[in-house]
Design a protein that fits this description.
Blueprint (H helix, E strand, L loop, with lengths): L1 E10 L2 E11 L4 E5 L6 H8 L7 E6 L2 E2 L4 H5 L2 E4 L11 H10 L6 H13 L15 H13 L5 E5 L7 H16 L3 E5 L3 H7 L2 E6 L2 E6 L1 H7 L7 H9 L8 H4 L2
Parallel strand pairs: 3-8, 3-9, 6-7, 7-8
Antiparallel strand pairs: 1-2, 1-4, 4-5, 9-10
Helix pairs in contact: 3-4, 3-5
């Protein structure tokens, strides 16, 4: 459903993403992991069409997002790591605006908006300006906006940021149900426990390249790390397994 071929992004002499090849099939929940500055968010932004690659291609359902952006983006729901909303719109107006971007309006949209607000327990806030929403409420509204047009693919960057435990559990269940019905989820996260439990397969990105990818058994095999947890695998692959000396900053 999502295919990256030679995906590369350079900023002058610096290469943020270096020739990534990746395929995420229909019905899979795929995790994209990496340390800060590894190229995860840059890759995500190229996948959803916010950034233009220096070279390489991204296709969604066989549609190139650069040459046919509207068709490709119509299949996508994007949940960014920072929940930006328009403060002078109400929750209902924001979702109506999001639906209109995909050419949706009328009674069908209103029913969809009410369904999503109820799901995320935002119904009492439908008519309130989003400037009064908490961070977690804004995050839930952004998620609802990504789902309003019934996408085939959800791309999400740090999905649990700002969510309380109940909402985080709801989102996990939602992603799993979505993939069980043939949808595809590409998720970037720093939370190893979430990735290990939720994801069917994982790619670990380091210095702009994929250091390893596969399910947990395959990752352990690739790294000769039998029985190792994902966090330890991640640290082994990204050079973070060495504990720094802390006495210099902690000693009086």
């Amino acid at each position: 459903m999502i295919r990256l071929t030679g995906l590369t992004k350079r900023y002058g002499k610096f290469t943020a993403v270096d020739g990534i090849d990746l395929e995420v099939p229909r019905g899979e929940l795929f995790g994209l992991l990496g340390p800060n500055g590894a190229g995860k968010s840059t890759s995500i932004r190229m996948i959803v069409g916010i950034l233009r690659p220096t070279s390489g291609t991204v296709t969604v359902g066989g549609i190139d997002i650069q040459t046919r952006p509207l068709e490709a983006k119509a299949r996508l729901g994007y949940i960014p790591d920072r929940p930006f909303v328009y403060d002078k719109l109400t929750g209902g107006e924001f979702l109506r605006f999001a639906a209109a971007l995909y050419g949706m309006q009328g009674a069908v949209v209103e029913r969809r908006i009410d369904e999503l607000l109820a799901l995320f327990e935002l119904t009492p806030w439908k008519g309130e300006l989003t400037e009064s929403y908490s961070h977690g409420m804004r995050q839930k509204l952004i998620i609802a906006g990504a789902l309003v047009h019934r996408p085939e693919v959800i791309v999400v960057d740090e999905p649990m940021v700002g969510l309380d435990p109940k909402s985080a559990r709801l989102l996990k269940d939602l992603f799993r149900e979505f993939t069980s019905r043939g949808g595809t989820v590409l998720m970037s996260t720093h939370t190893m426990e979430i990735a290990e439990v939720m994801c069917d397969r994982i790619a670990i990105v380091y210095r702009g390249k994929i250091a390893a990818q596969g399910n947990m058994a395959e990752l352990r095999q690739q790294t000769s790390s039998e029985g190792m947890r994902l966090e330890d695998l991640f640290l082994k692959l990204t050079g973070g397994h060495e504990t720094p000396r802390l006495d210099a900053v902690l000693d009086p």
